[in-house]
Design brief:
One of its GO terms (molecular function) is hydrolase activity. The protein starts with 7 loop residues before the first helix and ends with a helix. The chain has one domain: Chitosanase, subunit A, domain 1 (Up-down Bundle), CATH 1.20.141.10. The protein is mainly alpha-helical and 176 residues long. It is 62% helix and 3% strand. A three-stranded antiparallel sheet has the order 1-2-3. The relative contact order is 0.12.
Length: 176
């Protein structure tokens, strides 16, 4: 079997997510995602051909799913600064189309879930810091509207706070 290679930006971001956000196995009764390993739901793992017990999904298999499902041809094609990280993380947590809609709403655009020319142009009208801030606010608002917010809201809030406080220079030094 050939060893897969991934773009450096993806590897940098996925390592931060693995080290700081996504844990091991989970099967919380209130989580509509069901059984989850390394942040990958059983449904998603099955879609990507995984047939085993979710407790045995390897980190390498999870990384490949993250790449194929949430990075390749999506975030990687359009955004080169750290907004890409936040959009990638939101995609993992809420789905790619929903993440783009949250971003579009933060930009004051019609939310169609497609990361096209209008969205990319609107991104370019803001500083990186501004757009990440606006995106984070809209993301937290979205979570607060979900039926299971009372169960998972504190965790989602902590996730956003942790990600919004990343020191990018320090993170880069860890993985060089």
């Amino acid at each position: 079997m050939a060893v897969k290679t991934y773009p450096p930006q993806f590897l940098f971001y996925i390592q931060i997510i693995i080290d700081n956000i996504e844990g091991g196995f989970s099967d919380h009764k209130a989580d509509t995602g069901g059984k989850t390993m390394h942040g990958i739901t059983e449904r998603l793992a099955r879609t990507h051909g995984y047939k085993g017990d979710m407790k045995h999904l390897s980190m390498d298999e999870a990384i490949d799913i993250y790449y194929e499902e949430f990075w390749k041809g999506k975030v990687s094609n359009h955004i080169k600064h750290h907004l890409a990280f936040h959009l990638f993380d939101c995609s993992i947590n809420s789905g790619y189309s929903r993440a783009v809609k949250i971003l579009q709403e933060a930009l004051g655009l019609k939310a169609d879930g497609l990361l096209g020319v209008d969205t990319v142009n609107a991104i370019s009208q803001h500083t990186e810091k501004e757009i990440i801030y606006l995106f984070g606010i809209n993301r937290m608002y979205f979570y607060s509207t979900l039926a299971n917010y009372s169960t998972f809201g504190k965790g989602w809030r902590n996730r956003l706070l942790k990600l919004s406080n990343l020191d990018w220079e320090l993170e880069a030094e860890k993985y060089e």
